[in-house]
Amino acid sequence: MLQHLFDGSEHSRADLARSTGLTAATVGAIVGELEARGLILEVGTRRQGSQVGKPPKMLSVRPESRNVISVDLSDPTTFRAAVVDLGGSVVASVNVENPGSANSETLSLVDKVIELAIAKATAPILGIGIGTPGVVTASGSVVEASNFGWHDVGLGIHVEDLTGHPTYVSNDANAAAIAEYSRGGHHCRNLAVVKIGSGVGAGFVLNGQPYGGEHASAGEIGHLVVADDGPRCRCGHRGCLETFVAVPSLENALAESGASAAEVRIDAAERLGVALAAIVAILDLDLIVIAGPRRLLGDDFCANASKSLRSRCLESVAESVTVRFTSLDDDVVLLGAASLVLSQELGVA
């Protein structure tokens, strides 16, 4: 029922019975329960043509009836949190600066940004969603997040104990992929989001479902070697994708390279295209979305990455793939974390 009501349109009880296959009596009982919980409301009537009798009463979700606390830890220097309503609108937001501390100190800053966001809630809180760098298990434990010095940190359980609210944790690129799938305004069931920040990671939606891999590490593309003679990476290898495309690497190259800014950006896009070609050849995706600072990457970044990808794949494989920037801008991880809560708590994407 909620899946149909969350499509943004209005439905009558008869509409819901037809679309769900439930009986009118069952639909009536569920509608009554959802109205009692304040999640939906009647929004008027609908009359069609020469309809006889009383027009049906239309139902819609009440976006303001619940809040989700959404947290974005993808920028290691600034932790962001927002209060998001059921319609995906940001009601309020807060930022907490991270001076570069690690382990328990960083965790305390996460606690602080969440508590500040909770204080701004305008409705009962449905749950808390968190997008964080690193390898994250389905239970919300961060196996490793090197930027924060975290190893086997039970972030989900920690936040639940702190706040009393159900908490769901995802890798930030995976959260971005969920946001693109649910709020990106397209109809692709197979897509990837490449999140470019202090590192580089990818999140996948395959056949309409998030895909994290056997060990929750699908999409760790930042350490794919794209140039055997490239710069030394912090992981110990040479020529990892991260050494060309991650924000610190790109900023350093733009500041120090003797090449022009355009040449540096084209080189970064071409290196990304090497990695994307392998992903497309294996997964046969419809869409690749780039989530990163456009001011740094440049307006032609997606076109150049696409050109590099296509030069390394069979034409029949690559011809239908679109590479573009996210339309959700800086809120892509926040909205993905909110969608994760809606999915787990209400069964809607």
Task: Explain how this protein is built.
A hairpin with a 3-residue loop joins β12 and β13. This protein is globular. The chain has helices spanning about 1-5, 15-20, 25-35, 105-120, 155-165, 170-185, 240-245, 245-255, 260-285, 295, 300-310, 315-320, 330-345; strands at about 10, 40-45, 55-60, 65-70, 80-85, 90-95, 125-130, 135, 140-145, 150-155, 165-170, 190-195, 200-205, 210, 285-290, 320-325. The model has no long low-confidence stretch (mean pLDDT about 90). α2 (about 15-20) crosses α3 and α9 (about 260-285) crosses α11. The chain has three domains: about 1-60, Arc Repressor Mutant, subunit A, CATH 1.10.10.10; about 65-175 and about 330-345, ATPase, nucleotide binding domain (Nucleotidyltransferase, domain 5, 2-Layer Sandwich), CATH 3.30.420; about 190-325, Nucleotidyltransferase, domain 5 (2-Layer Sandwich), CATH 3.30.420. Strands 6-5-4-7-11 form a five-stranded mixed beta sheet, sandwiched between helices. It has 13 helices and 16 strands. The two termini are about 15 Å apart. With about 350 residues, the protein is α/β, with parallel strands linked by helices.
